[in-house]
From TrEMBL:
Domain of life the protein comes from: Eukaryota
This protein's name: Uncharacterized protein
Lineage of producing organism: Eukaryota, Viridiplantae, Streptophyta, Embryophyta, Tracheophyta
Region (Disordered): 1-30
Length: 30
């Protein structure tokens, strides 16, 4: 997997960012 695939950084880092965004979006819904 290359950096160009995610468009941001390493896939592991991108996963952390996406996880944080999902958590922030789920909190107000609950």
């Amino acid at each position: 997997i290359k950096e160009s695939d995610t468009g941001l950084a390493a896939p592991s880092q991108w996963d952390l960012v996406s996880d944080k965004q999902m958590m922030q979006e789920e909190q107000p819904l609950q």
